[in-house]
Write a structure and sequence with these properties.
Elements: H1 3-43, H2 46-50, H3 64-96, H4 100-113, H5 117-132, H6 137-161, H7 165-173, H8 178-206, H9 210-214, H10 233-241, H11 246-279
Helix pairs in contact: 1-11, 3-6, 3-8, 4-6, 5-6, 6-8, 7-8, 8-11, 10-11
């Protein structure tokens, strides 16, 4: 057997094994999604979405408290994380550039991006929940914001560095200040990429449970007070799935499908924006 034939056989074997591995992954993926759709859609109803929290053993009620709580927690997390992430990314790209401190911040941001979410939840528990003596929704938002920031920092930094330096030089030649150049020229050129990073970061935190167990905890009643324990879809789904009541277990499937489609929709939106930018 010559070397050429041997390489062709090895290539064919590797191709077959890679294809089988990909198909095996797809089988599990479609199995999970199929089960989720079957269980979730069969339990989905208007009552399950807008109904009040169900009582133990009751077959009426819904996830209104958890949906509102999840929305508030994620909303406050974005209000905290987006400005900090964009400002930090702007510093790395426009002010720090190749400085040593900027490189250190980039490395720390990359490390923070890979930190397990439960570690972030424990950290926020130690600095916010334990000193105040009770769980609260705003602590959950802070923990999710900490997870958002490195993603936005990295995306903003990369997108701003992709803006051609000639645009900056042209603006400087017209007498614009550095702040005006960044605000009116650089941001405008990179806004699509920055928004993609923001949307993907929101999708990243949308399905987190571990940080909320240590911070916002949960609440079986409807509340809008972010300084008290507040319900979330992720924690409520976990609690209902572990409950002995059939109706609560059905609501857990509804929560799962709502979270799945919410995160999926955010990811698709981010991809569409990125694709639109690429076409432009």
């Amino acid at each position: 057997m010559d070397a050429f034939t041997k390489r062709k056989i090895v290539n064919a074997v590797v191709l077959v094994l890679s294809t089988l591995a990909a198909l095996l992954g797809l089988v599990w993926l479609f199995w999970i999604l199929g089960t989720l759709l079957y269980k979730g859609l069969s339990s989905l109803s208007i009552e399950a979405i807008i109904g009040p929290p169900p009582s133990p053993g009751d077959n009426t009620g819904g996830l209104r408290h958890a949906i509102v709580g999840q929305t508030l927690i994620v909303l406050f997390a974005t209000l905290i994380g987006i400005p900090i992430g964009i400002i930090a990314g702007t510093y790395l790209s426009e002010y720090g550039k190749g400085s040593r401190i900027a490189n250190i911040i980039r490395d720390l941001s990359d490390v923070l991006m890979s930190v397990p979410s439960i570690v972030v939840g424990t950290f926020v528990y130690a600095i916010m929940v334990k000193p105040l003596g009770h769980f609260m929704g705003i602590a959950g938002s802070v923990s999710l914001a900490i997870m958002m920031i490195p993603i936005i920092v990295r995306t903003t930094d990369d997108m701003l560095r992709m803006v051609p330096p000639e645009l900056r030089e042209a603006a400087y030649a017209l007498g614009a200040t550095k702040f005006k150049v960044i605000k009116d020229v650089v941001y405008r050129a990179a806004i699509t990429g920055i928004m993609t990073g923001v949307i993907l970061s929101v999708a990243r935190i949308g399905g987190e449970t571990a940080p909320l167990l240590f911070t916002s905890f949960n609440n079986n009643f409807f509340t809008l007070n972010m300084f008290q324990p507040i319900a979330s879809l992720t924690v409520t789904m976990y609690d209902y799935a572990m409950s002995p009541y059939k109706y609560w277990q059905d609501l857990a499937w509804v929560a799962a499908i709502l979270l799945t489609f919410g995160v999926l929709g955010a990811n698709i939106l981010g991809r569409l924006i990125a694709h639109y930018k690429f076409k432009k």
